[in-house]
Amino acid sequence: MSIPETIPIIGASWDDVLFVLFAVVMLGSALLVVTLRDIIRSGLAMIVCFAALAGLYVLLGSPILAATQVLVYIGAISVLVLFAIMLTQTKAGPARLVFQTQWWAAAIAAIAVVVVVIGVVASTDWGAEATRLQSVTGDVARLLFSDYTLPFEAVSVLLLAAVIGGIFLAKREDRRDEAPR
Amino acid sequence: MSIAVVTWQRLNLLGRILAIVVPILLALGLVTIGVAYVAGPYAVGFLADNVPLLRFVAAIGAVLLLTIPTAFIVIYLELKVIARMNLRVGPDRVGPFGTAMSVVHGLKFLSKEDFAPTGVDLRVFTLAPVVVFGGSVMTFLVIPFAPGLFGLDMNVGMLYLFAMSGLTVVGLLMAGWSSFNKYSLLGGLRSAAQMVSYEIPLTLALVGVVLLAGTMSLNQLVLAQSGSIADWYVWRQPLALIIFVIAGIAEANRSPFDLTEADQEIVAGFATEYSGMRFGFFFFAEYVNVFVVSALIVTFFFGGWTAPFDWPFPVVISGIDPLAWGVGSLIALLLVPVVGTLVLAAPFWLSSRISTLQALVIGFILFNVVAVGLLLGWAFVSLDWVTGLFWFFAKSYVFVFFFVWLRGTLPRVRIDQLMGFAWKWLLPAALVNIFVTAAVIVIVNS
């Protein structure tokens, strides 16, 4: 007597239930990101959203992508966002921002993104793509350093350029050079 | 008056409690046996058909339970070892040599008021210790304790480890922000800056190990180092070990890198406003982290559960098979404690003038010590996972001692020194290590 493949009454498989669970958490927290008025809480809701996305990656049979998602998006990017908010905002300052002044620009951007995503989803043969994407660490590494070497290096160079640009922008004018003049 | 009432009035307090508790326990026991008799076969069948699920649930439960003794042992070690280094005695009142001190600490946290100051963001304030503790506990899931004794053998185990340690930063930031206190916020920001910076050399230091082993699964890494002491990666990756230990101390927020809770500068950092069991979670998480970092050092560089020399064990002691004796084994099981106690009590009874009862008590204690010793020795010799556990914990606690030693001797660094050291020394050293390791592997293979 083992656990049945599908849930007795509803007839959906366990993976489907988990998918629905993760999807609901992801969409709900994504909505919270834009509707919450406390910007720190928005940032925390974004972390929940990323975590739910990592869960979806695990369901799709790609644990390496899920681990990278948690490592990069939660461990680095979200922390950086929270860090920046905490450095720039204070409890005394306008922590509860009014976002609505730019709603029309946001609406245009959101509709454009939705159109693009629908176009991509509709034009992809999901049956073929899903079977191809059963990734293991070794396979990913082999692909990365054979077929996709050029994009990989291009991304590295882009990131390096971004880092140097960031340092240049953040760097103060060096006063000691000006002193002798 | 009936005889029952008279008897009840004659009982003292203990007797009355026992008179109520014992029948309840007996009834519960009978019900349990009945339920087990009826539902037992179904339950066993269900569990036998769902071994992966059962293994997962058992692993999670074991991981959660394991954190408690681990934290208690590490806290006791810290109290006692630092006391000896300071020429103090340390805890010696509760339990033998003060060993129950950590338990008393835990009870103290439980009995304190769970206090939240005005102005805190209560939901975030409450969730923060949970996130920190969860991040520490979940790393236990992939650590291989002994052959076959691990929660999950993940193909991406190492990535998972770093992902979980990243969660801790989020928890510390949440605690720092929600406390509504400038010292807490400073502590949270310091911890974020420190952990994000030190995560990079920590991760890069292990790339050399991954290059050597060709896997990111922690269990496979240990298997790749099995053999003797010469096969451990510490000899082939000494620079990586140094970087990993330094960055690991910073990741665990331990002295000399404990700037997040530097008490002379920012009270207690992110934990300033916490009290009661909420603070207890932070406290627990810190000491669990010390053990986790030690266990990871052992797993990556010191062969995990493998023995330092070629071990002839496990061996099966043949010739004695208790199961073949039938009823005789049952009688032996009943007789051995009695005979053992009497034999061990005899010399005391004969030689000195102590009473028979005292001699028997001494004999009983001695018998227990001998029996437990023999049992553990037998398990060590003939079960490979007991041997593995022994070596794993022995090596791990060497590093726990090392961390406590550092805390007892080194002064705290300054925040600019801390960041400069990570970016100017550790990161280049880790990159050099990757480059040299890759070059050597290419040369050796060609």
Question: What report would you give on this structure?
Answer:
The complex is a heterodimer of chains A (181) and B (446). The mean pLDDT of chain A is 79. In chain A, helix 1 runs antiparallel to helix 2 (39-59). Chain A is mainly α and 181 residues long. Helix content of chain A is 72%, strand content 0%. Chain A has helices spanning 14-35, 39-59, 63-88, 103-123, 126-132, 137-144, 149-170, 175-178. Chain A has a domain at 1-100: Four Helix Bundle (Hemerythrin (Met), subunit A), CATH 1.20.120. Chain B is mainly α. Chain B has three domains: 15-49; 66-313 and 385-445, no CATH class; 322-332 and 339-382, no CATH class. The interface between A and B is medium-sized, with 27 and 37 residues.
Structure keywords:
heterodimer, A: mainly alpha, Four Helix Bundle (Hemerythrin (Met), subunit A), 72% helix, globular, B: mainly alpha, 3 domains
Helices and strands, with pairings:
The complex is a heterodimer of chains A (181) and B (446).
Chain A: H1 14-35, H2 39-59, H3 63-88, H4 103-123, H5 126-132, H6 137-144, H7 149-170, H8 175-178
Helix pairs in contact in A: 1-2, 2-3
Chain B: H1 3-10, H2 13-49, H3 51-85, H4 101-111, H5 122-139, H6 157-178, H7 182-213, H8 218-224, H9 238-251, H10 263-266, H11 276-301, H12 327-351, H13 356-382, H14 384-409, H15 415-445
Helix pairs in contact in B: 3-11, 3-14, 4-11, 5-6, 5-11, 6-7, 7-9, 7-15, 9-11, 9-15, 11-14, 12-13, 13-14
